[in-house]
Amino acid sequence: MALGFVVVDLVWEVVKANLDRGVRGEWPWRFTVLDTSACAALVALLGGIVVTRIQLSHTLRPVLSWSGFDGGSHRVVDSRRTVTLRNAGGGRAVVRSVSYRVSATDAYAGRVARPAGWVDSDVVVDFFEALGLERDRDFFLLHLGAGAAIPMSSNWREGMELLALNAKGRERLSLVDIRLVVTDVLGDTHRRDLRCIRPRPTASAT
Questions:
Q1: DSSP notation for the chain
Q2: Does residue 12 sit in the same domain as residue 37?
Q3: Which residues form the domain of 23?
Q4: pLDDT at site 154
Q5: What tens digit of pLDDT does each residue of 134-159 get?
C-alpha cells in the first residue's frame, strides 16, 4: 500500500514537471507531498523490500507432503492404512488449525449420525468409537494442536504419523479427510487437504 502511494506521487511529480511553469503554480498542480528525487528513492527502496519479501517467501515456503500406505504404523498392529506427514520445504511450518471430515461406509452409515462438515479431533474420535472402533487397536489419530511444528524432512519414512486404521477401521470408514492450516516463518498462511481415505469404487454390473 505504501509503495502504491509513493508510485502515484512519483507519477504526479513527473507529470507536473512537464507542465508549463505558470500551470504548475495553479491549484491542484502546486500540491506536493514529496519531490521527484525523494519519490524515486522511496520507490526504489520499497520496491527492493517487496522483491526481497517475495524471494524469501518462496525460499522459506513450507511444503506439506503426506503419504498413505498399508502397514508401517507404530501405533496400530496390522495397519491397513497409515498416513504420515512431513514438511519437505525450506522453512518451518507451525500448525494454526486442524479439522477433519469423516463418513462411514454404507453398511454402517445408518447406525451413527455423520458429523456435518469439518470438525475437530474429539468429534472424530467419538464418531470412530461409536462405530465400534477401539483407540490404539483399530485406529490411531494424532491430536495435532495449534502451535505444533511439522517436522522437516526429505524422507517420507520420517514423517509424523497422523492416522492409522486396521482392517476393521477400513471396513467401517469410507472417507477421512484432514485439513491443515499452517503458518511459516514470515507469518504467511498455507492450507493443505489430505484425502486419507476415499470411498472404494463399486463394481459395475456387466
A1: -HHHHHHHHHHHHHHHHTS-HHHHTSTTTT--SS-HHHHHHHHHHHHHHHHHHHHHHHHT---EEEEEESS--SSSTT-SEEEEEEE-SSS--EEEEEEEEEEE-HHHHTTSPPPPSSB-HHHHHHHHHHTTPPBTTTEEE----TTPBPPB-S-GGGSEEEEEE-HHHHHHEEEEEEEEEEE-TTS-EEEEEEEEE-PPPPPPP-
A2: yes
A3: 2-59
A4: 78
A5: 999 999 999 999 999 998 887 767 78
